[in-house]
């Protein structure tokens, strides 16, 4: 019988996923920034948007829009399936090698579909493998009310929040297509979008630690470089710390 190998090859070291949260004002550039980060990061990365957890219109959880508006107010957390998103993220982070193709993870595959989104374009889960980088993998979470319940800011290693003035936000929204045409209107903006955002901004500024506020009217490249630089710095310091202890 052959002698046992005195030095069997070490099992590949599992790296803890670093989590980057991007939240902020409607049309502030959250999705643009998150998707650019996903394609540029020199490591394995995945992207999950809160947009995919908006409840379907038929769900009784949505509050009505205030009179004289008819229809639903989809701009509060009551319209988001927060518990499902939290469960999905916990499950993803708990796995040694989480599935990066939604087809391999039924709980994420559901999120490829158009669930209850307010925007007329789905924003599905995306994962991308880059094994050779040596850097920890990154999960990018993005959503208009992402920091509104305690799990997500706690789970994030970095937290970014995009702001716009009321006029800038109104102007950007006026150029976009929504699933319910009333949601693109000026009355809905005044009665639902802006009050919900102001209240959320106050809550985050007062209660969520370590948030970096960014002006969403800055040029896209400047915003991207700032966020990208912060994320890469986090990954490199994680790599150094892990190298020092291994
Ligand atoms: N820094 C920027 N400067 C100018 N326009 C921008 C900038 N970032 C994004 N935009 C534009 O603003 C619009 C909204 O961008 P995006 O969809 O990324 O915002 P969002 O915060 O994800 O919006 P929502 O809350 O509706 O999901 C898009 O037309 C996008 O091209
Ligand atoms: Mg978006």
Number of domains: 1
Q: In sequence order, what are the helices and strands, one letter per element?
A: EHEHHEEHEHHEH
CATH architecture: 3-Layer(aba) Sandwich
Q: Which kinds of small molecule does this entry bind, naming each only once?
A: adenosine-5'-triphosphate, magnesium ion
User: What would the average pLDDT be, to the nearest integer?
Assistant: 88
Instruction: Give the overall form.
Output: globular
Main sheet: strands, sense, barrel: 6 strands, mixed
Number of helical elements: 7
**Global Rg:** 20 Å
Q: What is the class in the CATH system?
A: Alpha Beta
**Order of strands across the main sheet:** 3-2-4-1-5-6
The name CATH uses for the topology is Rossmann fold
Main structural class = alpha/beta
Low-confidence stretches: none
What order do the helices and strands come in, and which of them pair?
Elements: E1 18-24, H1 30-40, E2 45-49, H2 82-94, H3 106-109, E3 126-128, E4 138-143, H4 151-155, E5 158-163, H5 166-174, H6 186-207, E6 211-215, H7 220-245
Parallel strand pairs: 1-4, 1-5, 2-4, 5-6
Antiparallel strand pairs: 2-3
Helix pairs in contact: 1-7
Bound molecules: adenosine-5'-triphosphate and magnesium ion.
Magnesium ion (MG) binds next to α1.
Structure in a nutshell:
This protein is α/β, with parallel strands linked by helices and 246 residues long.
